[in-house]
Amino acid sequence: xxxxxxxxxxxxxxxxxxxxxxxxxxxxxxxxxxxxxxxxxxxxxxxxxxxxxxxxxxxxxxxxxxxxxxxxxxxxxxxxxxxxxxxxxxxxxxxxxxxxxxxxxxxxxxxxxxxxxxxxxxxxxxxxxxxxxxxxxxxxxxxxxxxxxxxxxxxxxxxxxxxxxxxxxxxxxxxxxxxxxxxxxxxxxxxxxxxxxxxxxxxxxxxxxxxxxxxxx
Length: 217
Known about the structure:
Blueprint lengths: L1 H20 L1 E7 L1 E2 L11 E7 L7 E9 L4 E2 L5 E3 L6 E2 L5 E4 L10 E11 L3 E9 L6 E10 L18 E8 L8 E6 L3 E4 L1 H22 L1
Antiparallel strand pairs: 1-3, 1-14, 2-13, 3-4, 4-11, 5-12, 6-10, 6-12, 7-11, 8-11, 9-10, 12-13
């Protein structure tokens, strides 16, 4: 009986470990450039989810979401400073428009952008470009890949640029026809648990409590 409980404890401990690793890095773009003066943020969020760091090659899924009625679009709709040597997975780019818009196929493309400059926020090495702002976007999502060991956790997928920013977005305020501007996220974000991870964590803790009681008996 004790042996079975011991094996169960190992399984639950592994579940706990996996649960603590199932997370995402959430960066909120709060800093506007002068073109967005008078338009309140936050403007967008960038969500980074790294697959298991043990995978070879590694993959990270990145999703940008416009907030508060803003739309993403045009050149550098999303600009990132990615850590290490990487590439965008072919066919992984997807996007959703704001309500009432229908962008054409291949409306968004990626560009490896060594020393690409975003107005007011320094240099970034990857850009996701939309054709224009005729169909402003609510979300842009894609997958990056890199050699094993390039990234150690969600936070390490992006790295600070020369202005201490990780990401920027080209946004258009709701109700405007021509005004657009850039907003960026400072070099701090939040690690948030994925809901499935939270479930696993709770299950693992409950299981360990049960096992402890059985050992006491």
